[in-house]
Amino acid sequence: MGFRTVISERQHRLGDELRRLRNSAGLSLPELGERIGMKGPAVSHTESGRLGINPERLALWLDACHANDPEYRAGLLAMSQGNGKGWWTDYRHHVPTSALDLAEFEHSATSLDTYETLLIPGLLQTKAYSEVILDYSEKTVEFRQSRQRILDAENETPFHAVIHEAALRTMYGGPTIMRDQLNHLIEVGRLPHITIQILPFDCTVFADSDTPFMLLHGRHSKLDTVVMEQPQGSPFLGEPEAVASFRRQFERLKGLALPPLSASASEPSPASRDSWGLLQHIRYAVQGR
Fold first, then answer.
1. With a cut of 70, which residues of the chain have pLDDT below it?
2. Alpha-carbon distance 203 to 9, whole Å?
3. Are residues 97 and 29 part of one domain?
């Protein structure tokens, strides 16, 4: 098998996991290689993502490193067998590689948590709102809308969003587009697999997080991944300490945000002190513009 010239984030992450396992087991590259029938350089290339690994050798690797959790092993096997192809492949000439990697991670995630400060989360954006944000780039907008398939009834990936009130009050595209966007949030927020909470302006406790991020849950908690939104790009984080830190941040944000409306509630009151009450209040204010 030849070396990969382009390494996806999934392949990077698999290699990082295998390296962590080897280091935890206290094995050098040659030592592990001897146990699984590989030369030391080939082990190194596998850990860097440049070289793939077949299921049989992966099982030997996990056995040698005493990785016995069946769910964790199954998650690593799925990562190793992925070919990176999906609906997102059609957009490889239209969006950055990091966007393709995100779509692949979302496709395999068991659930998603996200925090946004100044924008509506991409998975909850209306087409008109996305067009404004993405400068009316047709293929980029189409790609973002296609990502939302994971929230369809066919997939129903659990999705929890904490959105800062600033994102609701910034009139991107004007009142009409924002009113429709707020209506869309209210509509999808009633779906049982979607939870939306608003972090209000009058929160008196510092949230300790000013950077938008998404926490993508894997088949095992060790395979969770964080994607951060930054002007220079969207780095993917898989180090256990970093992921654990973002998990704590998201739990803190959930606690500071207004409670979501129950999906079973028939008609939220605009005066109620919950996320939907605030959403309704902002929507009425937009309608009056």
1. 1, 231-233, 261-272, 289
2. 36
3. no
